[in-house]
Amino acid sequence: MTPSATSSSSATIPTLLAPSSSSSGDEFDIVSSYHSLLSSDSELPFPIAAIFALSELVSKSKAATTSELMENIRSASQRLKSSLENPVPATAGLDLFTRFVVTKSWDSGDDFEAHKASLAALAHEFALHTVPSCREKICELVLPFIKDDSVVLTHSYSRVVMQALKHAALTQRKRISVYVTESRPHGLGLKTYTQLMQYGIPCTVILDSAVAYTMPKVDLVLTGAEGVVESGGILNAVGTYGMAIIAKACNKPFFALAESFKFLRMFPLNQYDLPINGVKAGGEVLAFPDLVVGDTVAAKQSDGGEESHIQNTPKLNTETDTPKLMSKAQQLINPAIDYTTPDLVTFLFSDVGVLTPSGVGDALLAVYGGAD
């Protein structure tokens, strides 16, 4: 289920070519469009950016039939997913848009150009108004579970969690305090800390390795999700799974907050069944390096026998200059996300309701039915 080899977003991305002569003039770089949307609005969710990008593709497509348009959409979706190191968030939006186009019937007697314009306009309208309404519903649903004087533990940075905490503290005047993990290697927990302190919500950053130490002091765990899978489990920043295990061991409720546009038709069986596009350094997730040779770590490529410097770790004088942080190459062989199994999730709060793991499957069935 892992997509094909990844390419960096800064690399030259081939333009999208339509499959037939009637639409051979189609050229649209969905990767550039996607990253441009994210650059223009740092708070834009990845699935919504993917929907915006595909709606732009549809509006510019020269496809003359539904089958040609669907081929354009599928090709563009695969191109975008293959360009991302972590394609999970974008995949949710791409799949949702594809399903929307499939179910939106076209009368062959009508103008197909008008049909494409209608598809693009409806998708754009959906994406524009869905985010605020989804988060408002989630904030109202989770509010009764955040009691006055609660101590909350959260992980990394989640927009919907931030809005829920802000709503509880500033709108409902609940006194809450928050622990947030630093969330290495990106350190997004520091972003959470900065914003919460600006809101006037007491917050303390803890080490990722201090979750078990901190758990007895908290009343509940609130996390976001990059994706919600069919089993009712969640995909989120690495460390979420470990936090959920500790929460269950300490008998603390673990609540996940996620908008319904993050629901995925995916059923991972374990941590290594996630759609991650490999490691940019050329190795595998959690791969062991070769032994130090000279000043670098050299590895033989399996095909040509040429040397490639996977971790490029300098030979150190261990008494004076032992590194205190992981190198960039060492970070790259570590996972970006993990899979929190449904048995560890107390409730999932979404705009479609407060769900148990089995309820996620019902929600997905309502959207996708039995479609492939």
UniProtKB/TrEMBL annotation:
It is found in: Cytoplasm, Cytosol. One of its GO terms (cellular component) is cytosol. Residues 1-25, 302-321 are annotated as: Disordered. Keywords: Cytoplasm, Initiation factor, Protein biosynthesis. GO terms for molecular function: guanyl-nucleotide exchange factor activity; translation initiation factor activity. Residues 1-15 have a biased composition (Low complexity). Residues 310-320 have a biased composition (Polar residues). Pfam families: IF-2B (PF01008). SUPFAM superfamilies: NagB/RpiA/CoA transferase-like. InterPro entries: eIF2B_alpha/beta/delta, elF-2B_alpha_N, IF-2B-related, IF_2B-like_C, NagB/RpiA_transferase-like. Its main location: cytoplasm. PANTHER family: TRANSLATION INITIATION FACTOR EIF-2B SUBUNIT ALPHA. Component of the translation initiation factor 2B (eIF2B) complex which is a heterodecamer of two sets of five different subunits: alpha, beta, gamma, delta and epsilon. Subunits alpha, beta and delta comprise a regulatory subcomplex and subunits epsilon and gamma comprise a catalytic subcomplex. Within the complex, the hexameric regulatory complex resides at the center, with the two heterodimeric catalytic subcomplexes bound on opposite sides. Belongs to the eIF-2B alpha/beta/delta subunits family. This is Translation initiation factor eIF2B subunit alpha. It comes from Ustilago trichophora.
